[in-house]
């Protein structure tokens, strides 16, 4: 995954500016990470009435209530990132889909 430098104050909804991007949860102690689809995270937040598009990445990080499966610490960071295998044509297709 290639992180997108939006900063922790960016809302989850910023993913719309980066079609095809994922929400990457990573442990800053050992670099374990897991990618999520932003749409799924937003849907889950809405379900829990815990936020949505406007929720900043930093707030999302605070909601993680479990320890890192590798190092057992809780030093999480959420950021937007590009999957390594993302095809530029797929990016254009998604960008058009979002516009329409
Ligand atoms: Zn860890």
What this model shows, in words?
By secondary structure, the chain is α+β, with helices and mostly antiparallel strands. It has a four-stranded antiparallel β-sheet. 28% of the residues lie in helices and 20% in strands. The chain has one domain. The site of zinc ion has 8 residues, from loops.
Provide keyphrases for this structure.
single chain; 100 residues; alpha+beta; four-stranded antiparallel β-sheet; 3 helices; 4 strands; 20% strand; globular; binds zinc ion
What's the SSE blueprint?
Layout: E1 2-4, E2 22-27, E3 33-36, H1 38-47, H2 57-62, E4 76-82, H3 88-99
Antiparallel strand pairs: 1-4, 2-3, 2-4
The chain binds zinc ion.
Residue fraction in strands: 15-25%
Q: What does the overall shape look like?
A: globular
Gyration radius over CA: 14 Å
Q: Given the structure, what is the number of helices?
A: 3
Quaternary structure annotation: single chain
With strands numbered from the N-terminus, the spatial order across the biggest sheet is: 1-4-2-3
Tell me about the largest β-sheet. Answer: 4 strands, antiparallel
User: What level of helicity do the residues show?
Assistant: 25-40%
What is the strand tally? Answer: 4
Average of per-residue pLDDT values: 93
Identify the bound ligands: zinc ion
Termini separation comes to 27 Å
Structural category is alpha+beta
Order of helices and strands: EEEHHEH
Number of domains: 1
Low-confidence stretches: none
């Amino acid at each position: 995954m290639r992180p997108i430098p939006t900063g922790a104050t960016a809302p989850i909804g910023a993913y719309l500016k980066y079609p095809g991007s994922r929400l990457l949860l990573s442990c800053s102690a050992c670099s374990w990470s897991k990618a999520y689809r932003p749409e799924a995270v937003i849907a889950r937040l809405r379900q829990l009435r815990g936020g949505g598009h406007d929720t900043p990445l930093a707030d999302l990080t605070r909601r993680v209530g479990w320890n890192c499966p590798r190092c057992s610490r809780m030093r999480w960071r959420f950021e937007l990132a590009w999957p390594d295998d993302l095809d530029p044509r797929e990016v254009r297709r998604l960008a058009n889909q979002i516009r329409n």
